[in-house]
Amino acid sequence: MPIHDWSRAPAGLFHHFHQHWAVSICDALNAGRLPRGFYALLEQHAAGVIPDVVTLQRGPRSKVLPDRSGGIAVAEAPPKTRFVSQASDEEIYAAKADRIVVYNPLGDIVAVIELVSPGNKNSRHAIRSFVEKTLDFLRQGIHILIIDLFPPSRRDPQGIHKVIWDEVQEEAFELPSDKPLTLVAYSAGVPKKAYVDPVAVGDTLPDMPVFLDSATYILAPLEATYLATWETCPEPLRELIATPARSVASQASDK
To answer: Which of 66, 111, 115, 167 is most open to solvent, judged by the fewest CB atoms within 10 Å of its CB?
Structure first.
């Protein structure tokens, strides 16, 4: 199935697809793609780098609510300032996105799969946070696969890989003009390596490597999982994305 133009979708609709695609990839990895003893889990983004071992059980939480007596409810009396700015929905959905985390039989994180959301690139802070998080993973020896189905922005004019790799080693890199989307797998070994496959709307997704160590990888079935996710998408979402964009002239002729 060809890659769709997700830049046409509202952030909330891509978030729906993103979540379900992540589940599909995770299920495929656990259904035989990973070697015996390895496993993949979904984890919601959190501030900072995820810990080396995830705690699957949590102790009881206090049910005592914080005392807000004396505070002013924003809903009842919003602060009165001359200007008020609010972050976009894209940032909210990026914060809610899931990543796929691969563990070895000892319970150590060996790899992460990230599906880029629009909110990861909609501000200098957002893209800087994404790059720093990626570099933190690599410094810890955690391999990464990044799937970015959104065209470059003014913050990553040559794609997300160029911004990340410049922090590892500055070298010339230019996306092909007809392949503006980026798939990149990073091996966190010594030396670090990047395996980049530029793609475009209309292309079939290639399977991409997920490194388990610097000498071993498995292939993530991107095309098969993308297709499976697309087939279960709500019809209005599929119609919005699959219908070719109409030209301005064509729309004007209808008026």
So the answer is: 66
